[in-house]
Amino acid sequence: MVSTLINDVLLQPLGIYVIALGAGFLVPLFNRAHRGSAILVFLAALAAMVAISGINLIAIMNGAAPVDIETAGIAPPFSINLRFGLYEGGFVLAVNTAAILAALHLLPLLKQHASALLLYLILVMGINGMIMTRDLFNLFIFIEITSIATYALIGIERTGSVLAAGFKYIIATSIASSFFLLGTIFIYYQAGTLNIDDIIAHRHLVQGPVGFIACLFVLTSLLIELKPYPANGWGLDVYETAPSGIASLISVGVSAGVFFAVYKILPLMADYMNSIALIGGITFLVSNVIGLKQINVKRLLGYSSIGQMGLLTLALALLLQLDASSLLPLIVGGLFINHLLAKAGLFWLAGIINRSDIHDWSAIAQRPGLLFLLGTLIAALIGLPPFPGFWAKWQLVMLLADGGEYAWISLLLVGSLLEAAYLFRWFSHARAADENHANISVNFWQTTPVFIAALLLFGTGYGMSTVMHFNATYMFLPIVAGFVLLLIDGVHGRLKDLPMLVIVAAGGYWLTRDLEGINRLFSYLLIGGGLLVSIAAMYRNDARKGFYPLLAILLLSLATLLHSKTSLEFFFSWELMTLSSYLLVTLGREGVKPGLRYLLFSLGSAYFIFTGFAVHYAATGSIEIASLGASGDTMGLVFSLLAIGFVIKMGGFGVHVWLPDAYAESNDDFTAILSAVISKAGVFGLIIVAANLGVRSDIGLDPAYVLGWIGILTATFGALMAVFQEDIKRLVAYSSMGQLGYIVTGIALMSHLGWVSALYMTVNHFLFKGILFLSIAGIILRTNERLMYKMGGLIKNMPVTFVFTMIAIIAMSGVPPLTGFGGKWMLFNALMDKGWHWIAALAFFSSAVAFLYMFRLLQTVFLGQRKLEHRELREAPIILLVPQFVMIVAIMIISAYPKLLLDPLSVAIDPWLANTLVWNGAALQTHYGYWNAPMIMMVVGGVWMVPLILLLLMSLTFRIQKVEQFNIVYAAERPNRPEDTHFAYNFFAHYDRALGFLVRPRATAFWNTVVEWSHTLGSTLRVFYNGNGQTYALFILIYFVAMFLLNGGLGQ
Amino acid sequence: MSIIADIPVSLIVLCSGLGLILIGLWGMLTQRNMIRMIVGFSLTDTGIHMVMVSIGYVTGGTAPIINDAVPMAEAASRIVDPVPSALVLTAIVIGLGVTAVMLSFAVRIYKARKTLMIDECTESKW
Amino acid sequence: MTDIDWLSKAAYFSLTLLIVTFYGLLVTAFIYRLIAKVQGRIGIPYRQPFINILKNIFKRTAISHGVMFYLGPVFRLAGGIGTLAFIPVIYGSEMFSNFSMAGDLFLVIYFMFFGQLGMALGAGESGHPYSAIGIARGLSQMTAYEVPFVLAVIAIVIQYDTLSLTEIVAAQQGGWQNWTLFTNWLAVLAAMLAFLGMTGYSPFDIFLAPQEIPIGPPTEFHSAYLSMLQTNRALFGATKLILFMNLFFGGATGWIELMIKTLLIYLVAIIVGVAFPRFRVEQAIRFFFKIPTLIGIMAIVYAQMVFVS
């Protein structure tokens, strides 16, 4: 008897209502006896609701039929019925899970108000009902039940602002539901039934002006409950003021119910699909623009919530328009679950930290656990891998591209970028430790719901990857490695580097062992090179919280990037790389702000790549990277989009503004990785694109020429800007940008020689930039300075570092006989071959300009007069010098025997471009000239020995005297302070007078203007939110009128 | 006189209902006092109820009880549709609940800040 | 080409080196005398540069500011010798083709930086601010005059379709009308304007500032170091003249032709030098970016139109 009761009633979906109402009666009873027991009953009821929805959902997923709950013993349409199918089950389970977690979060508040327990249960039941009911009027009832419970819960806290916000909320929603009721009754008038399925079956009856008005009322009221722009100020006020647990439930629970209601009635609304999509799209975009201006955390989350609901609505409408309802669970479901968990988690976190201004969030800067949660939730919300939003957005964009809806794709991506901007700005403030922060104390148990939400995000993310048939479990290796290293992250000291190196080496080897061709080459460079440079990280012995796990994720995501066969895998790895490198940048001294800029440009670049892949998918129906070349007419577009993306990532001219600060403010050893290794990911991407798209087509040529110009302008301006830097890291950062410019040009050449030169320069760039940045790390370690004019004469203290730096600089400059010359020689030959004479001339000029900053670096740091306080400095630590030495050896070998490098490069390119390298013995011959590297090495060595021996011989005849620092001929003046005598500050003042006008920060000014305009736009768009409840009510009415006009109401 | 008599009752109810809705909306939008706004809402609500009732009414119809007076075959055309009336009952209850919550909010707002003017409750904005 | 007789090559090259150095020193003396004549002085005897070098070599005291300071002149002289080594001096003569089979015109242009960079580092270690100032100015000016020069070079690479110096000279054989000077005079004009900056005579001599003492890179160098620098100045100057002769004036089939041609080329710089006052660095840079660059661009356009079929 009892077991039948349990099986037939309680475990059925109906049990949700039975339990909610039953517990609703029991809670006050128990409360009389004992407050604690009432809470126990309350939580048990919620747990039971989760369990019931879970059990039933699993049953349905295993093939059971959807459960129909009939009432009054009569079959529908003559009675109300509820349905628990796959979609309903998913929503209900998600909402109930969020509800129990929110309840846990709210417990301290709920303990004070016994009546709140009851209201909470009713609220959750109401949402369940909204999702399950199949009766239009019953839907109204459940909406009202939910609303009344919500109103009451908002009013628990009796401060003026909450109550005021609550009152506005009530006014707004009750106007909306009044219209819903009117619409319902009109529909009934025409269709003669209230059963939704029945109405849909007889939708031809709903017609004429009355039918139009009826549908308009029902639809618009539901949409208004979803808070569309601009009729949503009331929702924002509640998000801002209500207790975070309640706000979270409104954001994810109530909205979910209403959203599902919209989904249910959509079959009636076929004529309105465009307006629905438009409303969703505008709301998504505008909320995210306005969010930029917001500094109140909960209101910020409110804007994000509204935006996400807009996105869901947009996705729903577009999917139905594109006849892709089979993708609903994946796209809409994925976006929904992503929003649900991430947004709720963020609201709870906001409640725990209880700092309303984002600037005050530096309170958690010293709490890695909280930062981890915040970062995870934000990353999920933006749709970064591996979270559900990533997969859903991927699928959505692919689908839109397939349907040719490129306007929607741009809206989606622009909105996402804006959302990333303000959410990660919040994260940045939380990351930035400032001196007057009050460290916050947080009870571990309080964070449990947030933690569970984060875990569920990881879990559902992984789950979605399997649903998407992303049969590449190894793609998750970086994340797993990161977690493993996180376990030992508490240990202090440099030896933490070793497990990281072992894991990355093993994982990297395993991932890249089967690669061939260009991917294989890059695996040596990215993984091998990354490991080599990472060895140097051991020079620091401090805690470095998070550094090694993130570095492991970064390096292994490079390995998965190389391993990628499909654009999805590629994009997955790319985003993972972006995220981990961003976090690593923020670990630097002042890295938070530049980090944000880096992230936003990287995301922008990722979205270009994303769109490129989408266009390719639309053209070919395939996501195989190897099929990029089959893009047909869209080939030029795909090429351009992908190339733009990769060029942004490489710091191309005009979009380079993120680069100097990100490089300069990162940890010094990480800058070496960033410049020497990570930038090569962009090179790899560009090569892949060029290989698959550029070569096989003739139309690829025009974008390639543009690319060649972009590359050379990057080289020129990078060099010019480097000349005027006082900060050593910024100087080398700009230099890095410039040197990558040559590589871009080399790739753009689309010829065998061009590519060989590009790859050769890539290897060379890795070597000399690795050395330079590691040397700089040593210099900064010893001097604690970054401004070059505050150094000087360090050759006496750090001779080894000086020699390494000098060799690196010669290798960079292109002066024979070291490696740089080969790259320049091949590039120049390839350029002449192609007839790109102007680019060749600029290449010459920029490499001449490069001499200025290269000399400046050596002169002002190592030569000239040493500062008094630097007399006792020691050589850089040996662990920094070892990787540099390895790279010096490599430079020397390649300089003398470039064939060792050029042959494998040439073989790797062979599948795409026929080998044009002609070897005449050791000499490389081109159409124009020849280059005999071993011989040059011999001759230069020989002629260098001649004066050396001469001088040595001469010095035998007299005694060489080592002199003191100021023993110089100084025209009757007697210098006594090194500061006066070291010519270093504003070194190229005259050059600045002549050519400085070229490098005034125009690009930075441009992007600042973009930011400013976005903010101005944001403040313009939010003027509607004047805080007055009547204005909000007016907007609701206007909204109805607008919908009426928009859908041709006058014509009806 | 006869013209008025010819107008069906349901239409009169419908029109007055719609009129009430508009009056109520006007009240909610123009009256800054929260209590007056709530009155406005009540009017709108009542108006909606009247509209609902009017929709189910069949002119000259009888009560929806199927007995000897109304044969089964003619039921559909002769009886007043019972469903809207049933719905109105529910809607009235709900409207009552909402009005009560609104009033309680108004009371508490007055307690918290000694005013009932909605335009003085605008500290959350932008 | 792989099996070269290093010993005889080295021996031949030593001979070339001796001749060019000797010639360079003679020209230096000639120029000084010429300038003196213009300025109404008598000037130095022809033997003076040789005496200077010998005197400096055997001066007794020598101080060093450190290893790099010591290596500076070494780099500088190696740069001069090496540049010469990669240029075929006499057309058609295997003996005086030096090591030009190791690399082409591009190698020569880039190798010219070798000495400058090493010298700059050596001067830098001296700790003398005037050295650093001189180098900063010199490098800045270099980036400017490189532009017309490179444009001219590209124009003739288009014209002759090769980077090989030997082939460029070969293409100019068969009479003066085949010289680049007459086949592509725009390129030569641009290059000769660049040449003014390259030689470091007035108006482009501020980085060396020969009248003011002490300033410029060699400020701290003396005795043996100075002798090497002086040697190199003569050698490197002559080498650049030979390069220009090869590129634009038909090369030379014998030493006499070489000396006449190079002297005439040099005179261009001298005549301009004695006639014009000195530019400041930024003025010099702006100068090169205006007319000479424009001429260089026209040279390439001309080459593209005429020589690219």
**N-to-C CA distance of chain C:** 32 Å
**Largest sheet data of chain A:** 3 strands, antiparallel
> Helix count of chain C, per DSSP?
12
Question: Could you spell the SSE succession of chain C in H and E letters?
Answer: HHEHHHHHHHHHH
**Which spans of chain A have pLDDT < 50 for at least 5 consecutive residues?**
none
Biggest contact: A-C, 86 and 89 residues
Query: What is the residue-averaged pLDDT of chain A?
Result: 91
Which geometry of chain A do the CA atoms define?
elongated
Q: Care to count the β-strands of chain A?
A: 6
Task: Explain the overall architecture.
The complex is a heterotrimer of chains A (1052), B (126) and C (309). Chain A is mainly alpha-helical. Chain A has a domain at 2-435 and 443-453. Chain A is 71% helix and 2% strand. The two termini of chain A are 59 Å apart. Chain B has a single domain (2-58, 76-120), classed as Helix Hairpins (Orthogonal Bundle). Chain B is elongated, with a radius of gyration of 20 Å. The termini of chain B are far apart. The relative contact order of chain B is 0.14. In chain C, helix 1 (6-38) packs across helix 9 (223-248), helix 5 (129-160) runs parallel beside helix 12 and helix 8 (185-199) packs across helix 10 (255-275). Classes of the chains: A mainly alpha (1052), B mainly alpha (126), C mainly alpha (309).
Quick gist of this model?
The complex is a heterotrimer of chains A (1052), B (126) and C (309). Chain A is an all-alpha fold.
Strand-helix topology:
The complex is a heterotrimer of chains A (1052), B (126) and C (309).
Chain A: H1 2-10, H2 14-33, H3 35-61, E1 67-70, E2 81-84, H4 86-112, H5 114-132, H6 136-154, H7 160-191, H8 196-201, H9 208-225, H10 233-241, H11 244-265, H12 273-291, H13 297-321, H14 328-353, H15 368-382, H16 388-402, H17 406-431, H18 448-467, H19 477-487, H20 497-512, H21 517-535, H22 547-563, H23 567-586, H24 592-620, H25 635-649, H26 659-665, H27 668-694, H28 701-723, H29 728-748, H30 752-783, H31 799-813, H32 819-834, H33 837-862, H34 878-896, H35 899-909, E3 918-920, E4 923-925, E5 930-932, H36 933-957, E6 960-962, H37 978-981, H38 989-995, H39 1002-1021, H40 1029-1046
Antiparallel strand pairs in A: 1-2, 3-4, 4-5
Chain B: H1 2-6, H2 9-30, H3 34-56, H4 75-78, H5 82-113
Chain C: H1 6-38, H2 48-57, E1 62-64, H3 67-85, H4 105-125, H5 129-160, H6 165-171, H7 180-183, H8 185-199, H9 223-248, H10 255-275, H11 281-289, H12 291-307
Helix pairs in contact in C: 1-9, 1-10, 2-9, 3-4, 3-9, 5-8, 5-11, 5-12, 8-10, 8-12, 9-10
